[in-house]
Task: structure prediction
Amino acid sequence: MAMSFEAGFKVLVVEDDPLIAEDLRILLCDNGYSVVVAHAKGEAVMHLTANKPDLVLLDINLGGGSTGVDIARWINANHPIPFIYLTSYADQTTLQQAKDTHPSAYLLKPFTGPDIKVSIEIALSNFYDSSATSPGLFDISILNSYLDSPLSEREIEILNGLNQGLSNKGLADNLFISENTVKSHLKSIFEKLNVKSRTEAIVRIRQLPLD
Amino acid sequence: MAMSFEAGFKVLVVEDDPLIAEDLRILLCDNGYSVVVAHAKGEAVMHLTANKPDLVLLDINLGGGSTGVDIARWINANHPIPFIYLTSYADQTTLQQAKDTHPSAYLLKPFTGPDIKVSIEIALSNFYDSSATSPGLFDISILNSYLDSPLSEREIEILNGLNQGLSNKGLADNLFISENTVKSHLKSIFEKLNVKSRTEAIVRIRQLPLD
DNA sequence: ACCAAACTCATACTTTTGGGTGATTTTTTT
DNA sequence: AAAAAAATCACCCAAAAGTATGAGTTTGGT
Result:
């Protein structure tokens, strides 16, 4: 099944350098992807929620405060889709942080057109084929069908964060709420899942046939 | 006496070559399966009825009259459980016959430990899809192949416990060691996995292509 | 016999989690 | 508009988890 992912796939490029961004845009367009470009985290998040792209190319070294890793974490917690890091260098700390966000690929500049194309193809097919390995979003309706009392949307978001191994602090930062609020949500989540700890919660939901 | 987390799945190996049979037996035992070996059809059928294994590994080219396909047909007709073909070559006729018996997998020699483990896991989970799936033991060698410094056996045991959502107390009770010892092990596990908490550890290992 | 690695455990301390209670603000539904 | 549900947050307390350090005991290999 040599399926092609080119037709109609939306790619979000997050790159603060306008020259590289434009290069990428042209390259991707030439390959049949529809492309949106963002230059900063806020813009990226906006496009992610509004346009729901199928894949993201992330410059890991964005100017300003937030980095590609921040965006990756946001993606994992809120809107899990495959993303590929683009970077000009790799220091160990950044690399480890990057790895922890489970990117589909990690391309070191200078990369070629074929590099990107192949990486995108692989990323897309891996992500949308194997439901088992993807630490994906939980379908709220399916998940709730197993529970006595249903989880709210926010609770699902928290649960997704848990499932990525985030701490309470991490959850709070990701969702822009206080740690106390996270605890509050967690408490009801635990009740509803009938578990007593975050680890039990993870085990519980992962053993469910959600895929 | 080591393992406290056996999956308890019984595997029947049907293989006329004693060397390969023994290799398989060891490999499977190491992965926590209990293993029975048969060398011919009659013996196989005997074990199938008497021991009721959960899965069968079938050499497709048995010496003598009957083949693995014959046994597969018997299984389908009399005692439907998942089975996997093992074969050194694939001629078209045999292959087609084999396909018609709806095997769970078809492994070409030379196959590796991971090959078999993965195929078995998939076969079992597909076949017994419902609830109490095996808590998924980790293959120490596979897991270690991803790590800079390898986990010891004891550490793997702890990790398996973590993966089931056990608390430190729970781990200590299960392994008959003190909670302090558990913490001690946990500390080195976290270092080796390069994580900072049990939840991160779980996420980390589950994201690996081990099961 | 000796060494190294693995396993064991303790004590003390810090940080993170989880539980309980209660309250305010949105949002949604009736 | 009133009621209900969801989301937000605070404060306090207790339990669990994690860190640091040091040390005794097995076990396997040279």
Observations:
- Confidence is low (pLDDT under 50) at residues 1-7, 129-135 of chain A.
- The two ends of chain A are 21 Å apart (CA to CA).
